[in-house]
Amino acid sequence: MRQALAGVIGVVAACSIGAAAQWPKVQEPGVPRDAQGRVRMDAPPPRTADGKPDLSGLWVRADRDPFPAELAGILGGRAGQPPADGRGAPAGRGGAQAPRGGGPPAGRGAAAGRGGDVNFADVPVAPFPPDPKSPPLATFFELGQNIPGGLPFTPWAADIRKARVATDDKDNPDANCMPMGIPQFHMQPQPRRIYQFPKEILIEYEANYGLRHIYMDGRKLPPQGEPNPFWYGYSVGRWEGDTLVVDTNNLRGAEEGPYDGWLDVRGSPYSGQAKFTERFRRPIFGKLEIDITLEDPKAYTKPFTVRINQRVVVDDELIEFICNENQQFRRRVKID
Fold first, then answer.
1. What DSSP character marks residue 9?
2. Residues 187, 172: contact at Cβ < 8 Å?
3. Residue 94, C-beta contacts closer than 8 angstroms, at least 6 positions apart
4. Closest Cα partner for 109 from 314, 315, 311, 316?
5. H/E/C letters for each residue in 97-149?
């Protein structure tokens, strides 16, 4: 498994170059800052003209993962421990620079990788304080690692995951420049930008240049199987108070092909019957909470929910991520 996973990490690292090398820094207007110019991460969230929370902005994942056993020796560490150099993760963009987003909130800022965790977030700062009301935190390599008992696979899903693991997860769409599943996109080290408009919300992912459309014009979710299945599915959103609720169905499931229906690096699948419900909240200026519920009776015996936290990034932009032409990854690392 190391070879394929090393390839995944290689793709991430190769595309995680410093943004300063490509784009000039431009100070973003409207950002709350203190007298020293540091971003006030704990300031109230911005709001749109109609009073809804404004989720617009550039976001990176803020959670840490336990160190996966598959990476022992690849990043210089052992399972359950950080690498010897203390990095704790494949570097995100600007890994040697000051923390993105203007620095951590006051009183935070532990070195990345301590305590046996992998910082697959893009900034070398401590995660947000634990939320006692949060669902289990999602992890990058295995989505349900923090769910008691693990993911509730059906026999069909368990067999698919077993087969994927047996081939070292070589068909993971992330490592093959293919569109990823929604949880993988939310947990990628590369950032994503949210554009919020009254009738539509766009999420532009730097990783694999993904783009999602969330329709906010009051339309209903189409019946399952009515439109052709899409890699990102068909998404409609609505506001419930200060929470954006997004329902997505009509996705390309694991039945469609080897690169379809991946929830995580280890290949936990979803089927063409899947329905994702995402709940986005911005409780403070610097934090975005995303609770993801998956209903998929073909793949899982019951629905489950996980949490992904993201941290705002200011004075920065997405950079190009082009890997879909003349893709040589599998041949160069001798997977095929």
1. H
2. no
3. 18, 19, 20, 100, 122
4. 311
5. CCCCCCCCCCCCCCCCCHHHEECCCCCCCCCCCCCCCCCCECCCCCCCCCCCC
Token readout for 105 is 């909130």
Contacts of 133 (CB under 8 A, 6+ apart): none
Residues 20-52 as b or e (16 or more Cβ within 10 Å = b): eeeeeeeebeebbeeeeeebbbeeebeeeeeee
Domain, as residue range, for 23: 2-332
**What is the rounded average pLDDT for all residues in the chain?**
81
The 10 Å Cβ neighbour count of residue 78 is 14
Number of domains in the chain: 1
Q: CA angle, 308 as apex, 55 and 323 as ends, to 5°?
A: 85
Biggest CA–CA distance in the chain, Å, is 58
Q: What is the pTM of this model?
A: 0.83
Token pair belonging to 207: 């990783």
Helix (H, G, I), strand (E, B), or coil: what is residue 247? strand
DSSP percent split of the chain into helix, strand, coil, nearest 5:
15, 25, 60
- pLDDT of res. 115: 38
Most confident segment among 118-122, 152-156, 175-179, 222-226: 152-156
Q: List Cα–Cα distances, 233 to 99, 175, 228, 236, in angstroms.
A: 34, 20, 9, 10
